[in-house]
Amino acid sequence: MLETIDLKKIKIEDPFWSRHVDLVRKVIIPYQWDAMNDRIEDAEPSHCLANFEIAAGRKKGEFYGAVFQDTDIAKWLEAVGFSLAAYPDPALEETADRVIGLIAQAQQEDGYLDTYFIIKDPEQRWKNLCEGHELYTAGHMMEAAVAYYQGTGKRKFLDVVLRLADLICETFGAAEGQIHGYPGHQEVEIGLVKLYRVTGERRYLEQARYFIDARGVGENYFMAEMKRPDYKRIFPEFAGYTPAYSQSHLPVREQTTAEGHAVRAVYMYSAMADLAGEYGDEGLLQACKTLWNNIVTKRMYLTGSIGSSGLLERFTADYDLPNDCNYSESCASIGLAMFGMRMAGLTRDASYVDVVERALYNTVLAGIALDGRSFFYVNPLEVWPDNCLERTSREHVKPIRQKWYGVACCPPNIARTLASLGQYIYAKSEDTLYVNLFVSGSMETTFSGRAVQVQMRTRFPFENEYGLSVSGVPDEGIRLALRVPDYSRAYRITVNGVEETVQTDRGYAYLSLSSDSQVKAVFEAPAELIRANPRVHADCGRVALRKGPLVYCLEEIDNGKNLSALYVNAKAEIREETSGLFGGCTVLKFQGKRMKDSEWGTDELYGTHAVRLTDVTLQAIPYAYWNNRGVGEMTVWLKELL
Question: What is the pTM of this model?
Fold first, then answer.
């Protein structure tokens, strides 16, 4: 397995990414703190911190929010931990310490920690694993505590979750007297592996393996649980529950297609990848490869989003990828990126990073406004604001980012992802540094006991080259593994001005450096038209635009109303132009056609009028930036003139 680089040793100073990463500490963390304290005017209330105050006995009141409301503050604290690792901030750290003190006070004597069940329904503790999210919440607390410990060196939060983890290890397992169940929403497995890696306590790793290995074996635990006389339903929509929704329909090694709730799935697959690496489990690794391939070759959008059904936020069938009513939850793309980086670390195969990059540059960034103060939960590829109506099949689609959500899993998830971006850029083995993403900044790590520094300079993704200044190379030398993206052409590398022969292995170009060196990589990644497999009904006869990792879209503000009336000729020249939009991004301009409607009366729904087309100049912008200039139509896919 490849290692990640300590965030304390990574600094990002990048023309593209800094505006997003810097928002985390400057805007997003403070804004989300206000949201969780219910200070955002006209936003849905959170009550997240109030729940902890009630559970800690500091105030009186009733539990408010979703059963997993505690995870909002957990992910916020994880983002804080990542941020403090790179950018120390005593005031922010003091605020976080106060929150951790509150969480510690709310924790029960035996280590239990979940405000929903502490306040609202203590008799139901551990009795509704299908819907209760107790283990999911615990997992996010574990991830947050590890990040905070690594970012600050402080143990208080870590000690809180270790008590919780010990309780879970005592409560769940195959032994007599233990609960022979597993999480309804996977996440604790990831948290337990992280606890093992930071403490060395193997029982946490074993507990994660138990939860994975027990899943889907024998009588389904959740179906049996629902038959108990004391079972209390939490989510009415679970009345027609089937085990595939929680990926418990089969043992994990026998699953071959991505099924059910998309976030649950990719969180579980991430844990499977972790365990495959820790135990050298080839069967588990092969299951991960099979599930990954099903997602990326049959069930993933061009933007790296997953989960096509607006009902139950789930996968459906191969090639079922509707554009105007899909769900594509921001959390799901984050989970896909987590899964992909783990697979890249296990296999040293850059094709996994190609998908991770696509998710990060498109869906994850689209989930947050450029001012850091509003968010998308759902990420469609086509929006017509007039039909985004409540109590319809598209009520989940929002034509504008929201200030907050009653179920606010996505905003803090985006925050923790952006705050940890440095860990996506590089990875290392004993003698090799892997360059996965092209992001300007500096990094330091150790090879052969010697500190090695790397400076990267680039204007990617709008310019397709980057330079690496590598210093501190030990006498034994080191290797560089430079990712060659799947969209790149004519990839060339020079070392100290001398061109190297590019030899690739699973998408990486390997170089051997014996001394301090200047490395430069240059490639072509022109804007191009992309088509979907004709089996994708929604996109058959349509094209989309892509430049490098960026998927482009058309907005009403640039191209007028009724974007569905637009056509593009595959032979049209696509011009890349630097614009003043969004801090100077590259826009794409090209000639297209618009279907004329002048012959149609406003009271005429059907008729025999011939199709008439007129020439138009069209402009496309990066999908990540849509809806930053007001409400309007948006589309990624255009009809193709044949």
Answer: 0.97
